[in-house]
Amino acid sequence: MTSTSTSSAYRLPDAPLSGASQPGQEHAFAHQLLEMLVIPAFVLDARCRVMVWNKACARLTGVPAYEVLGTSEHWRSFYDSPRATLADLVIQDRTDEIDQLYPDQPARYQASGMLCAQNWCDMPRAGRRRFLVADASPIFDAAGKLIAVVETLRDLTDEKTAQLALEQLATRDGLTGLANRRCFDDTLQAEWMRALRQQQPLSLLMVDVDNFKAYNDAHGHLGGDECLKRIALAVAGEMRANDLVARYGGEEFAVILPNESLKGAAIVAERIRARVEQLQLPGRRAGCQHVTVSIGAATALPAPNTESSVLVATADAALYRAKHMGRNRISLPLAEQA
């Protein structure tokens, strides 16, 4: 395509928008301004068809204007599956869906009708995932009729990545890469409140490495660290997507199992115990060939005016019994074992 045809692909004819009262020359000037903006921007008409797709937007998405102008296929530039952009929500009066489409990133709706939101976009053609901040502004004619929506985009991927890295430092254990104690406490409280609202069970496993002091004394701190890292991987390998495993402290790990019964928690606990034993890390204590773990399990159905600390205390007591009964085993609350 020649440079002349490429340039014309970014601009509409010099004619007024349907229903607009402004001269076509003014519209052409406005379109030219949009084209030259260094900020990525596109414009949809009242039928959600692309009217303008500026050069910065083409650079960001990897999609040239001629591929999308006059179509409603602009979503393909940002997502792998059909999904409304902010401009679509404004045009179709679907702003009540904003929280559903952007559940993790708060969106703003201004009295002027402008929507502001941010989220990760797949960017299929660009071949990279980007974190974009979007602003969608409606355009009305003299009679107050919506005739178009302008959506501008800001690429804040570097800033978001740096923020996530800092958050990870604050919530991750430096040795094992698991969630740290702070993250565990916050997550347990959040899951406790969720279980209370949804009236679902919440299970907890407390996992402790048996005779770790003897192992550490025999292999040194570096050997002990390597042991903990391998056990952390073994425990994490048994987790579902919504579970959380954390380094609770020292050689102790904690596993939060949302919406899991005690029977299900016991099954997970036994899989963890067996998986650690199968690592065959050499033990350094009489009668102990390999490093093992003891696990205490507990489950609660949260009720009003109860605290998550009750669940921790119950799991801790079960862990203590597993240790007392000879280690390398799981233990349930006494009421369940009776």
In short:
Helices cover 40% and strands 23% of the residues. By secondary structure, it is of the alpha+beta class.
Number of helices, counting only DSSP H or I runs of 4 residues or more: 12
Shape: elongated
How far apart the termini lie comes to 80 Å
The chain-level structural class is alpha+beta
Fraction in helix: 40-55%
CATH fold description of the largest domain: Alpha-Beta Plaits
Task: Name the strands of the widest sheet in spatial order.
Answer: 2-1-6-5-4-3
SSE order, one letter for each helix or strand = HHEEHHHHEEEEHHEHEEHEEEHEH
Named at the architecture level, the CATH assignment of the largest domain is 2-Layer Sandwich
- Total strand segments: 13
Query: Sheet bearing the most strands, described?
Result: 6 strands, antiparallel
Averaged pLDDT, please? 87
Write the CATH homologous superfamily of the largest domain.
Reverse transcriptase/Diguanylate cyclase domain
Q: How much strand? A: 15-25%
Structurally, the number of domains stands at 2
Rg value? 29 Å
Give the class-level CATH name of the largest domain: Alpha Beta
User: Could you list the spans in which at least 5 consecutive residues all have pLDDT below 50?
Assistant: 1-23
